[in-house]
C-alpha cells in the first residue's frame, strides 16, 4: 500500500505567485527560459535553471550554475518570496487547459510527500527507463538545495472517499491561489488542507485503499529524489526512517481525471526508398488510405495517420501485427516502431537515432505538416494516444514503454509549494 505524508511547504505570497510559479525545468531550453524571465526576478526559473543569470554559454551542468542555484534559492527565502508553513499540511492542486470555458475540465491532485522506500520497493511504479546522466543532474539539484524544488506527477487508482474529501474542500473553501498562466493560458488553483483529522484520514486512505502509485511524468525527478534519500540514509548512523529526506514531493491525481495526449514522430528520410517503394512496403502491415490534403487525426486504437508529400494517409494496422493481450504489443507506438520505423526505415534505437524526432500532441498535427513542408523532415506519423489503463497495465506487469510514448498536459507549475529535506 502507498505511504503519503503532509509537510511544511515553502510557498510564495499570494501577490507574487503568478510571477514566481514557472513552467518545469525540462520544458524550456536555456534561451527560452532567459527570455521568459526578462524583467521578472521572481520566476522560479532563476532556481531551476540558474544558468540564465550567468553569462551566455554557461551550461546547466557547470559548477558555477550549481553555486548560483543555491545562491538564488537562499535569496528567495531571505526576501520572503518563499515562506514556510508553520504546520504540516496536505494541499490540493487543480489544473485546466480551458479554464475560461463554461464547461472547463479540471483535474484535482493531492500534493503530498511520497516515501522513497516505496520507489525502491516498486510500490511507486514506473513505465519509462531513466538515463543515469539525467538522474545525476537532478540528484545534484536535490543535494545542493536540500529540497524537492519541483514536484513529480503521480497517478493512483481512483478511490471514491478520497474524491469526496477533495470535492468537499474545493466546493466550500476558496483557493489560496487562482490564476491563469500568461504563457499558455492554463488555469491553476491551489488549496491548503489545514484540518488534521482530514489530513490523517487521507493518509489512512492511501495506506489502506491505494495499492500503488504510478509515475505519470517525472521519472528522473522521482529516481533522483529517492536515490538522494538513500544516500542520506546511508550516511546517517542514527537513521530512523522518519527523517524528512525519506520523502519527496508529489502531486497525485486520480487516474480517471487524467488525459494522455498523443506523442508523434517525424523522420528525416525514407531510408533510401522512393515514395512508391515506401508505400508498397507499408502494405505488409497496414491498410493505407489517401485522405487528401486536409489534416487527418487518428480516431481509434491501431490507427495512425501519416503525412507525406503533401497528403495525409490513414494507416490501419492489419490483424496479426499487434497483440491486444500483451501490455506492450497492444501499443500503437510499438506497432509503428516494429513495422515501419525499424523494419522499413532502419531506425533501431529511438533514443539515439538522429533521423527521428518527437512532437508532443499539444503542438497539434499542424506542427507535423510544417516540419515536413519546410523540408526539415520527409514523413510524419501521428498516433492515437495511450490510455491511463495501458500505462497502469504496463507498470503493473513490470514492463517499460517504448521511448516518447506519453505526453501529459497541463504540466505541473513549479513554485506553488516546495518541500525541503531539513
What can be said about this structure in brief?
The protein has 422 residues and is α+β, with helices and mostly antiparallel strands.
Task: Outline the secondary-structure elements.
Blueprint: E1 4-5, E2 10-11, H1 17-20, H2 30-36, H3 45-48, H4 63-78, E3 83-84, E4 90-96, E5 106-115, H5 116-120, E6 124-125, H6 132-145, E7 147-148, E8 152-156, H7 160-172, E9 177-180, E10 187-193, H8 196-209, E11 213-217, H9 219-234, E12 247-254, E13 260-261, E14 263-267, H10 275-282, E15 286-292, E16 303-308, E17 311-317, H11 332-342, E18 356-360, H12 365-373, E19 379-383, H13 388-397, E20 407-408, E21 419-420
Parallel strand pairs: 6-11, 8-12
Antiparallel strand pairs: 1-5, 2-3, 4-5, 4-10, 5-12, 7-21, 8-11, 9-10, 13-20, 14-18, 14-19, 15-17, 16-17, 16-19
Helix pairs in contact: 4-6, 6-9
